[in-house]
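Notes from the 1:1 (GR / supervisor)

We went over the backlog. Supervisor wanted to see one worked example end to end before approving the batch request, so GR pasted a single chain during the call. The sequence is below; no edits were made to it. Supervisor asked that the structure be written out right there so they could see what the output format looks like.
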Amino acid sequence: MKPFQKSIELVRSAVDAGRISGAALAIGDRDQLFVEEAFGYTSFADLTGGAGAVDCHTLYDMASVSKIMSTTMVTLRFLADGLMDLADMLPVYFGEMVPEDKAQITLFQLLTHTSGFPAHLSLEEHMEPGSDIADFLLHEPLAYTPGTQVVYSCMGFILLAKALERVGGQPLDTLARRLVFEPLGMARTGYHRLDMPIDAANTAFTERDHKTGRWLAGRVHDENARFQNGVSGNAGVFSDIRDCVRFARMLAGHGTLDGVELIPRRIFDQAIRNHTPGMEENRGLGFHLANGHFSYSGLFFDQKAFGHTGFTGPHMLVSPDTGLYVVLLNNRVHPERERDSGNLRLRRLLNTQAAIEYERIRIK
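Structure output shown during the call:
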C-alpha cells in the first residue's frame, strides 16, 4: 500500500458516498509533498444542471480559513513592521468613535476571540448598504466582559479588518494580495469582489443566494462578506489546493517559505502559542489550536498543532514540530448547509490517519 493511502481513501469514500460533491487533499511537511489529489465534481450535477471534474486548480470558498490566510497574516505583518501593537486599544484605530464600554478592548483580544464581541450578527438585517460597519459594531452591546472567556467571533474579525484598512490605507483585499498572496506566490488566491467579473468555470458550488436563488460559485457564501462586496475580515478568500500547499508550507516553516521570510519567527511562534489556557477553546493569535478529541484536530494529531476550519468545508492543520500539514478543501454546504455531510468526523479521521501514516514514514 502506498503512503497515505488510508487518508486518500477516507476522502474518496466521502465523495463516492455522495456526502460531498468533490474535494482536494494535500498532505506534506516542510521538505516533501506526499499527497496532492482531487476527487469528484464541483457540484451535484443533477441539482445544478452541470458540473466539472475537480482538479488541483479548482477554487474553493475558504470561508473562515480566510481569517488566517488574510486577516491574521496582515495583522502579523503590521506587528512586525511596528504599525500595530498587541496592547493597542480600540481608540488607537477608531478614535472618539469608540464608546466607553469598548475603550479598553485590545488588539490581542480581537485576535484571541476574547474581546466580548458577539459570535454573529447579520449586518444585512441591521444596517443600510454603505453604512459605517465599524461604527455599527462599536455601538452594539457586548456579549460578555472582555478577557473573561473565548467566544469565536466573526464580528470581532470584521472589526479587526476595518482597523487594518485604517492602518494600511488600503482595502483588505489589496493588503492581503500585496502582503501575503503575492510574496508567497499564491497566484490564484484572493477575494472575489461582487462588482468584478469572475470566471467560475472551475469553482466549487456552495448554496443558493437567498436573494436571487442562483447557485453561488465564485461568489462568497458568507452573508456578511456578501454585504461587504465580498471582502471581509471573517471570510471571502478563494483558493485552490496548490496555493494552499504554499501557504501551509509557510506555516510549517514558522513564517518562512523557500528562504523568504513572511513573518519573523519571534512573532510567528507567539501567534501559534495557546493564549487562552483554561478557557473554552485553545486560541493563538488568529489561529485555532488543537484541543482534544472533540476538536477538528482529533486527539492523535500533534496537540500543539494549529490551523483553522471554514464553514463551507475546508480545513488546514499544521504540526509546529514536524511540519506535517493536512489541507482538505471541500464544499460540504452544497447544496444546503443543514445537510449532514459528516465533515467534522471526516476531518478528525483524516488528521488521525495522516498522523499515523506520517509517523510510519519517519520511523522507516
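Supervisor's comment: The longest strand covers residues 33-40.
Batch request approved.
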